[in-house]
């Protein structure tokens, strides 16, 4: 999964930091060794070592739990998760003043102009309650905007085909 989902799609990284649990040993460690990626481990059962990354995971988890608790179909959490992650990834972080999407792709995500303001407000992971509230709001914005994005994508693809 690591090779297909990350290395082949985004290229290699200098290091991978994991907790000390055994699921990151064996085959995964061998892949890192073969690809010359340094594998660093934090102390076992010490999530504070992950800093902001751990806070981001906690924010997503709490937001997803709240989203499912208020839903008539909580067992469909896997359908809600992509919208939550997309909204989070397109949101500017207080610590970096950039969105995770921008940091990864070196450009801003394409989103409908009516929603740019909703996703450009900072997420401060040092305030878990506010970060969770913001992530839930952004997930809703992302889901409601989907038809607009698909229409724009269809328009772009149609224009490209016509040029051929």
Key attributes of the depicted protein:
single chain; 164 residues; mainly alpha; 7 helices; globular; disordered C terminus
Record field, number of beta strands: 2
Strand order of the largest sheet: 1-2
- Which structural category do the helix and sheet elements fall into? mainly alpha
What's the average pLDDT?
75
Largest sheet: 2 strands, parallel
* Tertiary shape: globular
Oligomeric assembly: single chain
DSSP summary: helix tally: 7
How much of the sequence lies in strands comes to: under 5%
> What value does the Rg take, in angstroms?
18 Å
Proportion in helices: 55-70%
Q: How many domain modules? A: 2
Distance between the termini: 36 Å
3D structure, described in words:
The protein has 164 residues and is mainly alpha-helical. The protein folds into two domains: 2-49, no CATH class; 54-163, no CATH class. The protein contains seven helices and two strands, in the order H-E-H-E-H-H-H-H-H. The protein has helices spanning 2-10, 27-34, 52-69, 77-89, 100-105, 116-120, 128-163; strands spanning 15-18, 38-41. The protein has a two-stranded parallel ribbon. The two termini are 36 Å apart.
């Amino acid at each position: 999964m690591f090779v297909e989902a990350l290395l082949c799609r985004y290229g290699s990284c200098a290091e991978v930091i994991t907790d000390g649990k055994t699921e990151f040993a064996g085959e995964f460690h061998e892949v890192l060794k073969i690809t010359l990626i340094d594998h660093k481990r934090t102390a076992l059962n010490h999530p504070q070592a992950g800093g902001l990354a751990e806070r981001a995971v906690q924010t997503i988890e709490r937001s997803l739990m709240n989203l499912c608790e208020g839903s008539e179909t909580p067992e469909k959490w896997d359908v809600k998760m992509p919208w939550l992650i997309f909204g989070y990834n397109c949101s500017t972080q207080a610590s970096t003043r950039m969105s995770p999407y921008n940091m990864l792709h070196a450009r801003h995500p394409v989103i409908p102009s009516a929603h740019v303001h909703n996703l450009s407000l900072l997420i401060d992971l040092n305030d878990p309650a506010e970060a969770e509230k913001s992530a839930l709001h952004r997930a809703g914005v992302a889901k409601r905007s989907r038809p607009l994005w698909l229409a724009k994508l269809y328009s772009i693809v149609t224009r490209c085909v016509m040029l051929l």
